[in-house]
Amino acid sequence: MPIEFILTALIVIVTPGTGAIYTIAMGLSHGRRWALVAALGCTLGIVPHMLAAIAGLAAVLATNATAFNLLKLAGGLYLLWMAISIWRDGSLLAPRPDHGARRAPVIIRHAIAINLLNPKLSLFFLALLPQFVRPDDPHALCAMTGYSLAFMGLTFIVFALYGWFASLARRRLLASPQAVTWLRRSFAACFLLLGVRLALARQ
C-alpha cells in the first residue's frame, strides 16, 4: 500500500466532518462503547460510495447535475433535521440507563445515513482511486477494492480514537449542566453549518 495513499486518506479522514462530529457526540453522550458503534456505522456508510466508485456510478454524480443536486439536498436536509433534533433534545448528553439493544440500531442508522447522503464522498473515491490504480492493470478491480477497504479501516480507527478521547472527558463535562447545554448546542450548530455547506456544494 503506497504511503502516499495512506497519507492522503488520513488527511481526508482526520479533517473533522459530520461522521467525526457524530462519533464524538456519541462518545460524550453515551461513552466509549457507543462511540465505537457510531464509528462502525460511519464506516459502513462508506460502502455504497465505494461500490459506486468501483462500478463507475460515481461518474454519474460528477457529470449529472440533477443527480448530484438531489443527493446533496437530501444530505443537507438530513443534517438540518439532525441539528434541530440535537438542539431540542435536552437528554442527548444527560446520563441515563444503558439500553443497548434499542440504542445500537438507532446510532448505526444515523451514522450510515450521515455518510450515505454525502455525494462528495463518492466524488472523493472517483478522484482518489484512479490516482493509484492504472486503467490497464488486469487486477484493477481488486486494487480498487483493496484501497477502498483500507480507507474504511483507517476511517474506523480514526473515528474510534475520536470517540474514545471524547468518552474520557465525558464524566467531567457531564458534571456541569452549563457545559452540557453548551456542548449540545455546539453539536447542533456544527450539523447545521455542515448541512448548509453540503447543500451549497458544487460538483
UniProtKB/TrEMBL annotation:
Residues annotated as transmembrane: 6-28, 35-61, 67-87, 107-129, 149-170
Compartment list: Cell membrane
Keywords recorded for this protein, A-Z: Cell membrane, Membrane, Transmembrane, Transmembrane helix
Main location: membrane
Pfam families cross-referenced by the UniProt entry: LysE
Coiled coil segments of this chain: none
Membrane topology: Multi-pass membrane protein
InterPro entries noted in UniProt: LeuE-type
Similarity comment: Belongs to the Rht family.
Protein name from the UniProt record: Threonine/homoserine/homoserine lactone efflux protein
Organism the protein comes from: Rhizobium halophytocola
